[in-house]
Specification:
The chain has about 250 residues and is α/β, with parallel strands linked by helices. The chain has a single domain, classed as Rossmann fold (3-Layer(aba) Sandwich), CATH 3.40.50.300. It is built from eight helices and ten strands. A six-stranded mixed β-sheet has the order 6-7-8-3-9-10, with helices on both faces. It has a four-stranded antiparallel β-sheet with strand order 2-1-4-5, with helices on one face. The protein starts with a strand and ends in a 5-residue tail after the last helix. The relative contact order is 0.18. Bound molecules: adenosine-5'-diphosphate and magnesium ion (MG). Magnesium ion binds next to helix 1.
Length: about 250
């Protein structure tokens, strides 16, 4: 096993062409160590989502390389990438992206069924229990609160036993209390099972759950802190906002 879960080397991402070129990432080199919780912060438009998408193989860098474990993503075709994501990655987004017509159980098992695997009932029970939805397995998303829906999405991300869970603003649509529950669960993913979590957030309180916080500004990695409080993280964000001339968001 590699020490890193994810490795980016000189990654750039440019969108558009001719006069409307956007340099979303301008050369990112970073290792995300296994068994750690990394948060990615930065002003709106600084490249956070692009970073996450490139790291997870959801998007292809313009130049540079990305390794997920030992595998280099640019060497893979679209089919291989899809397979790799199914095996190694779990995803949680701000909009929970659940299927309204499916029950909790069927939403959670969807990635397994897409991969042609049969859900193991004991494991399914454990995953759904871990996110505290053991009593809600037959419910549909519309019958659940926002926090409960995001916990379904987290169970769905965990059911395939991914090496890395990628989360883009997972608490962006939640109130403080339910956000804390979801963040506690992400923390537990790392502490209890040694999986790796990479989370984009604009909230210093959310980022304080992480072991390490990376700060992006204008497509560059400009700062990082380890084991920081929300206050420290907030101060770094404010400094970034001044530097980038942008409103932290
Ligand atoms: P963040 O998540 O930090 O808000 P993004 O990674 O979404 O930032 O975007 C970084 C920059 O790239 C922004 O200027 C954004 O407008 C641009 N961008 C992102 N995705 C696309 C796209 N598909 N096409 C064109 N520009 C994009
Ligand atoms: Mg974003």
């Amino acid at each position: 096993m590699t020490a890193h879960a994810v490795r980016l080397n000189a990654v750039t991402k440019t969108y558009g062409g001719n006069k409307r070129v956007v340099h979303a990432l301008r050369g990112i080199t970073v290792d995300l160590p296994r068994g750690h919780f990394t948060a990615v912060m930065g002003p709106s438009g600084s490249g956070k989502s692009t970073f996450l998408h490139c790291a997870a193989g959801l998007d292809t860098p313009t130049s540079g390389t990305v390794h997920l474990g030992e595998v280099e993503l640019s060497r893979m075709n679209e089919t291989q990438l899809t397979e790799l994501r199914r095996q190694k990655a779990g995803f949680v987004f701000q909009a929970f992206n659940l299927i309204p017509s499916l029950t909790v159980t069927d939403n959670v098992t969807l990635p397994l069924r897409l991969a042609g695997a049969r859900p193991d009932r004991a494991w399914l029970g454990e995953v759904i229990g871990r996110v505290g939805l053991g009593e809600r397995t037959g419910h549909r998303p519309s019958q659940l609160s926002g926090g409960q829906q995001q916990r379904v999405a987290l169970a769905r991300a965990l059911v395939t036993r991914p090496e890395v869970v990628f989360a883009d603003e997972p608490t962006g649509a939640l109130d403080t209390q339910t956000a804390a529950e979801v963040l506690g669960l992400l923390r537990q993913v790392v502490d209890a099972t040694g999986q790796t979590v990479v989370m984009v957030t604009h909230d210093p309180v959310a980022a304080a759950y992480a072991d390490r916080v990376l700060f992006l500004a204008d497509g560059l990695l400009v700062d990082e802190v380890w084991s920081a409080t929300a206050d420290t993280i907030g101060q770094r964000m404010t400094a970034l906002g001044r530097r980038a001339g942008a409103v932290p968001c």
